[in-house]
Amino acid sequence: MSATGGMHRTRGTAVLLAVAAAGLSGCEYADDVGALPAVSSTPSRSYAARAPLPTRDPQIVAAETRNLLELGAVLDGSPEDFLFGGSGGIGGTSSAGFSTSGPVRQAGQYKVTAACVGVPDAHLSVTQGAREGGTLLELSVECGSAVEAVVDLVPGSVSAHLIHYGSGVSGPGTGAVAGIRISFGGPGQ
Predict the structure, then answer these.
(1) % of the chain beyond a pLDDT of 90
(2) What is the pLDDT of residues 37-47, one digit of tens each?
(3) 0.70 exceeded by pTM
(4) What is the residue-wise DSSP string for 131-147?
(5) Measured between alpha carbons, how far is 179 from 89 in angstroms, rounded to an integer?
(6) Element spanning 183, H or E
(7) How far apart are CA 144 and CA 117, in angstroms?
């Protein structure tokens, strides 16, 4: 064929492949030796029995449910141009607070609405890590009514926190809840 030995190279490759195939045909693989021995039905390690998860006090669950319904009425439905928000308990956590966060894709003015039920008051803070200083808003919230404020946000993540500091009755027994909503208000100034 060619002057560089193209035909010899092809025959040499064919011979090499034939030798490799013959060599591999005599190999024994673990999955072709027949049936595997039966597996024991008892595990090789013993596992300790796990304790059942703690159950919540039905009275606290009922109080939290009532408070969440009242919170929904105080926050009065979803606002137009809703960005993100949430609600949850503020009496049963070690921080005695609720927080939510979400992305801001467009710079502009955003309306923050917050409320709490089940404790006398709470403290609202809104932070955005992309901003110098981070904290954009801090307000005291009188529980039982909604508070609104406008903040200028830039693209990035924003977080809102509603924390009960302890004036009045608190703790998991109150079923205290909080809700925070952030909605787009329009382009910035």
Answers:
(1) 37
(2) 555 555 555 55
(3) no
(4) STTSEEEEEEEETTS-E
(5) 9
(6) strand 177-186
(7) 5
